[in-house]
Fold:
Amino acid sequence: MEQVTFIILGVTGDLTKRKLIPAIYQLIKNKKIKNLAFVGISRSATSIEPIIAAAEKFIGQKDEQSWKLIKQSSYALAMNFDNQEDYQKLALLLKTIEQKHELPGNRIFYFATLPEHFSTITTSLSKNGLTTTNGWSRLVYEKPFGWDLASAKNINKKILNVFDEKDIYRIDHYLGKELVSGIAFLRFTNRILEPLLNNKHVDSVEITMTEKIGIEGRGNYYDKYGVIKDIIQNHGFQLLALTAMEAPLKLAGGHIRDQKARVLKKTRLAEITLGQYKGYLNEPNVAPGSRTPTYARARFEVNTKAWKGVPFIITAGKNLAAKETSITINFKLAECRIQSCPTEPNTFKIRIQPDEGVSLNIYTKKPGTQEISPVEMNFSQGRFEANTPEAYGTLIEDVIRADQSFFVREDEIELSWKIIDNIPSDLPVVIYAQGSKGPP
Ligand SMILES: NC(=O)c1ccc[n+]([C@@H]2O[C@H](COP(=O)([O-])OP(=O)(O)OC[C@H]3O[C@@H](n4cnc5c(N)ncnc54)[C@H](OP(=O)(O)O)[C@@H]3O)[C@@H](O)[C@H]2O)c1
Structure:
């Protein structure tokens, strides 16, 4: 059990209440942390009570003792990331709090804010001695990391000037989801799968990341980024890379990151359709006449020996008919020696949300006939007795344990932005009805 000081930069934002405070609470409840201080920072963070209260409804059934510990250990500091004097105030506050709670100075700085602040905050933390303690300091950066290749390179350069890659955790919370971190286990522990996952047997791979909700008041952020930078550059490419990577030497750490980077290096956009849901322009803080896409369906080529010629199709969007995150592998049709052959492929599907699990569609003979019938073999993650842990909790625990396996490395970030930078900015954006399947 560790003793940690959590510093959340951007504490009044949506992410903190929805995910970060609940994740810290879970770590206390599950006895992964025995002692902590939690310091929330933003320009308007004058008091911690309303911030903690806003998170309460995202906790579910509460363990009163763990909740009390969070409340007793939480502090706020109203500061501006651009103001150097404020970092001195923060340094003093952290020292005082760590003394009061008898903490060793193990600090997690969590950047729950936009990437335009990453370089300034990081250099200011270093300059003002905030990461020099008797314990360790680790920095966690939310996605998106940058807004194009040049900005991502620039941020990487600036933060690596003052910190080592081993202290840097670029988070993509999809990598904390059980079924995503489990893709490598599925692929490389099942003999019946891996030999088939290549261009000899696979027809296409579909990665789906659709949501029923719209931008939920986050126009300020979303209108600048849109679906490609918000979802495809990070979650989409991580799912693609985990599906297409070669077997890593070990299912851990740098080995997985090496293999993912190899895939991203060989990935190119072939074709893309963009859409925007009807009514998007009326959302708060969206620019008049904005062409920001809320939907994209894109075909990528993965030009590795194993996957050359197999389309990887990524679909992502908001305000669509269904909420679904999944990877479907469509196999080629089998050589058929009967009269009524299957016209649809065998599929292997990894369901990331909702109803986490995997399924395999195969054909069997209908009893008493000469016909075939498709059947589904299905596994639901819920069959395990243990609850599936929340992604943010898993990843923050990894930060505490200094395990970077499921965080994104510098080269992966830059390679994925390189693919995105090649998308022309003047493509047509088709309007689609809310609740539909997207543009025709
Ligand atoms: N929301 C989600 O579910 C979600 C999911 C995945 C990833 N993310 C990522 O997480 C990050 C944060 O998301 P969010 O939705 O929480 O964003 P948000 O609601 O826009 O919050 C941004 C935070 O930064 C603070 N801030 C902005 N400029 C500041 C400055 N100059 N000085 C000090 N504080 C400043 C804001 O507070 P003040 O205005 O009070 O200063 C606020 O607390 C984003 O990069 C987002 O992409 C969010």
Summary: The first strand starts at residue 2 and ends at 9. The two ends are 53 Å apart (CA to CA). Residues 119 and 158 are 6 Å apart (CA to CA).
